[in-house]
Fold these 3 entries.
Entry 1:
Amino acid sequence: MPPSNRIAELSPTIAEWRQHLHRNPELMFDVHETAAFVAEKLRAFGCDDVVEGIGRTGVVGLIHGQDGPGRCIGLRADMDALPITETTGADYASETPGKMHACGHDGHTAMLLGAAQVLAETRSHKGTVAVIFQPAEEGGGGGGEMVDDGMMDRFEIQEVYGMHNWPGLPVGTFAIRAGAFFAATDIFHIDVIGQGGHAAKPHETVDPIVISAQIVTALQSLASRVSDPTEQLVVSVTGIESSSQADNVIPSRVAMKGTVRTMSDAMRDMAEARLAQIAEGIASAHGARAEVRYERNYPVMANHAVETEYAAAAARSVAGDCAAADLVMGGEDFAYMLQARPGAYILTGNGPTAPLHASDYDFDDAAIPHGVAWWVALAEQRLPR
């Protein structure tokens, strides 16, 4: 049976896997049941080797072609969910309060499992396909953990590819871009320390509330007045909390937190340095002190040019076309894998659904055959017999 017909035949079963995963979401590295489900399926498909515990709870399955082991490419899906209470009302809605698959990782895992089954059946490639199932994409850096655990060298992976569903992109279509694609996602914390006192006597205090408000406003100048307007920079203060719980007390301390998104190392360096200067300078001008902690999180995810064309060619063979994707200021820890090996990351349409990370988001099962077909086409085109 041709792969396209086999994919169509398998799609209802793959949707059942996806909905099972959706009912049973797990967070970060604590994806033990999901990883066990994946490993069991891979062994049932007849993968030549299935290795668990890579990067703590990641799973890698190896599928050799008819000619045996050889050149190896990696295909990666993420497994973890988000700490969100689901509001979809779906029959297969999350059965774990406060956790849901709000980013479609259930769909990514199911589609790569479907591709693994087809590739294990057909063996129409030459060499080895490594199917990679990664934990902790949502903030835990599981991709980096798998790389640090020696995955690329251990399985001799020479290229690596990833895929993400994309709301707003029509089902059955694909989009990609070469170079910087997803942003670096840094985190900052600023503690403003002043002098607390009675709210009726502000002249006896050094009010960290007023100071923190000025810092919030001034930080926006990083994008509007400090950075090159042709570069991408987003600075968002996402939380402010004071040390006081009373309405008649000016607190002594205010804690601020937020995120910085950039698309280049130069902008990242500038933002880190100037953010601290602004916060410390404004606090000092008011007789207060600012303690700044800046954490570099996921790096810029940049597609390699040659491998981007390989991914786009596979998309065109499936969908007839592959669109040019816009820059995304969200983060993606597939960046770590692309730092370790050449490869590319592509978007596939999820239709007019709720946005990613929304409590009413759901992966569209109609996207399954298209995603599976892309994985299979990519493997066969990169490892031709």
Entry 2:
Amino acid sequence: MITKLKFASIPTRDQDSAVRFWTEKVGFRVTTDQPMGPGKRWIELGIPGAETAIVLFTPDGHEDRIGTFFNGSFACDDVDYTYKQMSEKGVSFEGPPEKQPWGTFAKFKDEDGNLFVLSSR
């Protein structure tokens, strides 16, 4: 039986730039960085306190996914606080956090233009 989601992939043009963004600005950590075909690496990032990892890898033929909407959401305990911390580190948000009946959310972009949702649990 399936027990968890092991990783989700984020398509990227420049893996080195993506590693800097996700580690220095968002606070993830590199858990795996190894060759994965000509000119590419398999890079897994650990999210503090989570079992699911993020992978910075774009399979051949999927380059058109770079700069699109990530169909998922990063959860945090306090969107306002996390928004402030990430903004101070240079992360670009579409706007300030918005409160909804189901919780609070904000949308941010990585350096490849991929769009992500940050939301309360």
Entry 3:
Amino acid sequence: MKTVSGLFDTYAHALEAVHALNAAGITNTDVSLIANSPEGVGKPFDIVGKDLTAGAELGAALGGAGGLLAGLGVIAIPGLGPVLAGGWLVAAAIGAVAGAGVGAATGGVIGLLTSAGVPEPDAQIYAEGLRRGGTLVSARVGDELAEMAFDVLRRANGIDIEDLRRVYEQEGWSGFDDNAAATTPEQEADARDRYPLVPPFL
């Protein structure tokens, strides 16, 4: 099995990618999503810590009708804080669970991704993209489906992570920092405007 991932500038584009994976025959049991500051929700998910049941309801509502991802809810990931997350990649990392998909991840996002087979340099970019308000979609597929899944994610308004790496490095970035300050909504909007999207396929 391989883990194939795509980073998206908006939560809406990430949901489109999940649906595209489903249409290609990859079921939701093999798909995971992590979203930082999904549009229309705000940050830092003020609901978390006050009412975990409401946090689970928030995840269900944002998952969309039809059960997009089982267990979608709000969890806290070290280095990112509260994020909306669900699926196989996240399930193994959740420690204390109170309600469907609501709890705390036991490790940082870099370890979460590398333990699933994501190369560490890519995990660094995905983690930084998440910190700046992006959304990550990952699919667990057999070797024979990996290239197809990768193409599906690229076609679904995915971000070119190599170009994104160059953008970050030009700003002086050298790697994901668990202790970096949380981004503001304004900074996240600016980051989304500068994300290098994959050119449309002909």
